[in-house]
């Protein structure tokens, strides 16, 4: 009798203990914030590190803000030239050695960096492509402008500038880069029936000076050249500088990609007839956001279009476009 | 916890009052604790929410006030500059010499430089007249040729405003060459002193340093922030303006602009907006706090409540187990003592009265009751003993008249037959028997005396039955002195003769052995008579059994007396087999005289 009673009391104490434990467990469960979120280490390798370039500095700024927003340890490293594929491969290899959670790469070549990027994937590091793509489908996700669509929009705009016999020259950036390939394809598509008026295409390796020189050469070679299309900031600005300096502003029309203060000024001045701008800030930010989502195991869109916008002299002062043209950096 | 029936069933399951009390206490405590928790949590949440709203409102109003005073200050500066004679003369007096205008321009520029140098929140400062004259910054910057400044919204707003003052939303200042900065423009209409009409604009371009400082200096928690909307709901300032402009982040601007209250929770409940509108700037200052952060305090409070509840619960369980044990202790003692009484052990049944309460008086009554029962029982036992003894005494005095008659008859027969020797032997045995039965008034005799009595009896019986009876007695001398109640052996022997040997055709033997084993003396009376079946054996101590009574004292009477005198462990035991014989063993203690029988004497 006594034993049974003691047993009941022990059971009672046990039940109270269990209730107490349940209380404490509820407590812990109610406090998910107590669980410290892991700080991911992410390395961003843009095609180039160049503070004079509006596109890449804006992309980096977007990525850095994203890193701040999502509490990510972001390291940016990259070559000094877009053409330096070997340099980029070196940075990719160095990144692998640093064992980050993920690497965001803007590949400088459509096929040249693929082996190095395969190593990234093989090392168990998540690979996210930004701005450009490669010849293999190994990345977890891609964040880029739909370069074909952007090129086509620029081509369609260019059509409105053309007269019948006007010759067209293309100043492209890096041969073999997916952006250059896609944009050229888009532009030709957009030009439609005028496509066969494209008389020349040159590659400048993403250098203002080289683009400038190549444009001069092209004008000498093709005196009837009336339109020049630049496939990125270096190409467009280099070509426009040459046109401006040659006093051909308005006579030889320039359209191109991307956005910088210089491009805007030349757009105002009438050297550029139109520019198609990407949203590099969004691209950088979304790149980091996608990466964090992947690392946290959330579903993501495999290929994210960061968007683009055609800007002309007429619409450049519209508020919406101003926001895209002039990156807001607060205390400037 | 469901209904009363359920309660009873639950209580019915408990095996002790202690656990019932303990569990009830604990259950009540848990319920009380849950109610307390519910109220406390609810109350805390509301309080924290209200406090946050109040705190946030105060901060937002303070920020709004600071922005207003900042703008008032700038308006004062603009007022001083725009009303200075230098500006009026330079812009509108067309009759001056070039030297005069040059001097005025220099003075204006130096004033502008002073203002720009002293304040890092001003990008551009300029005065523009509709006639085309203008002064800009330090004189080295120029207006862009691509834009007509008169078409700019901030320019027109100043001219059309009734106060002559306009504050723009944030925009890119496109009017100045090679400068594309996000600014807020404070513009003020300039009055042409010659016509008295608004004929130009003085403006100041402000960067965000002052405003962001005002907004960031006031913290709304770790993650909370302050942003500013203009009267149309456009963003003037936002700490993450770039994300807002990139479309990567949104605020519930429509809801803010249409809200009538000064605070509201978003539909998803993740943000709390606090709103304050300014009449001077027309702006709306909005504070955004993440509810998750607000509720962090709530979580801490919850944690504390749960912790206290858990500790209290454990404490209450332990204390209630101690209390319930203490409360039920006298009851348990009472129960234990009652179970002793059930077993008839009255000597240890007395309960210590430790309390003055109901249980205490119950214990007292119980003690009185058991004492009385004990006394009554003792009295009853004593009376029974006395009754038995008096019965026995009465019986002892008798000698079976049949036996006497038969014996005397035998003597007569033997005398007639001239067997004088045998007559002498039988008569002397009878005389000894009679003397022994009457001489000793004591209740106890020694085993030796009892054996002598049996021997006399057997002598007579052997002579009577001649060839049919043979006997032997082998007593260990060690037990001759051991005390035994009178007339214990003879009835057993008589029983053996009349029930065992009498019906036997051939000669019967009776063997009497006495020995000691341990602290007991054993006397066995064995015969090789007809024996008993199990039925008879089982009822051998049954007084109602019809039987031959030797001297009026039967076997059951002997058994009772033995056990009455010496206790339950002593007495007679029988072993018997039908057709083989019977063994009766009498057990008495060696120190037969030391038990309570002596006290009775």
Automatic annotation (TrEMBL), chain A:
> Sorted alphabetically, which keywords does the UniProt record give?
Membrane, Signal, Transmembrane, Transmembrane helix
Offer an example of a GO molecular function term for this protein: carbohydrate binding
| Recorded superkingdom | Bacteria
Classification via InterPro entries: Peripla_BP_I, SBP_2_dom
Where in or outside the cell it occurs: the entry states:
Cell envelope
- The residues that cross the membrane are 12-30
GO cellular component terms, semicolon-separated:
cell envelope
- Write down the Pfam families for this protein, in alphabetical order: Peripla_BP_4 (PF13407)
Q: Can you give the residue ranges of the Periplasmic binding protein domain?
A: 50-298
The family note in this entry says: Belongs to the bacterial solute-binding protein 2 family.
Q: Which PANTHER family is this protein grouped with?
A: D-ALLOSE-BINDING PERIPLASMIC PROTEIN-RELATED
In Swiss-Prot or TrEMBL terms, this protein is called Monosaccharide ABC transporter substrate-binding protein (CUT2 family)
The source organism is: Muricomes intestini
Task: Give the source lineage, highest ranks first.
Answer: Bacteria, Bacillati, Bacillota, Clostridia, Lachnospirales
Automatic annotation (TrEMBL), chain B:
Specify the HAMP domain's residue ranges: 325-378
Q: Which domain of life is it from?
A: Bacteria
User: Where does the UniProt annotation locate this protein?
Assistant: Cell membrane
- Asked whether the UniProt record includes Phosphoprotein among its keywords, one would answer yes
Q: Which InterPro entries match?
A: Bact_2-comp_sensor_kinase (IPR050640), dCache_1 (IPR033479), HAMP_dom (IPR003660), HATPase_C_sf (IPR036890), HATPase_dom (IPR003594), His_kinase_dom (IPR005467), Sig_transdc_His_kin-like_C (IPR004358), Sig_transdc_His_kin_internal (IPR010559)
User: How is this protein positioned relative to the membrane?
Assistant: Multi-pass membrane protein
Reported EC number(s) for this entry are 2.7.13.3
UniProt-recorded Gene Ontology molecular function terms = phosphorelay sensor kinase activity
Reactions performed catalytically: ATP + protein L-histidine = ADP + protein N-phospho-L-histidine
- Keyword set includes Protease: no
Q: Which residues cross the membrane?
A: 21-43, 303-323
The record's keywords, sorted A to Z, are:
Cell membrane, Kinase, Membrane, Phosphoprotein, Transferase, Transmembrane, Transmembrane helix, Two-component regulatory system
Q: Give one Pfam hit by family name.
A: HATPase_c
A single GO CC term for this protein reads: plasma membrane
The protein's matches in PANTHER family, at most eight in alphabetical order, are given as: SENSOR HISTIDINE KINASE YPDA
Q: What is the designated name of this protein?
A: histidine kinase
Q: Which organism is it from?
A: Muricomes intestini
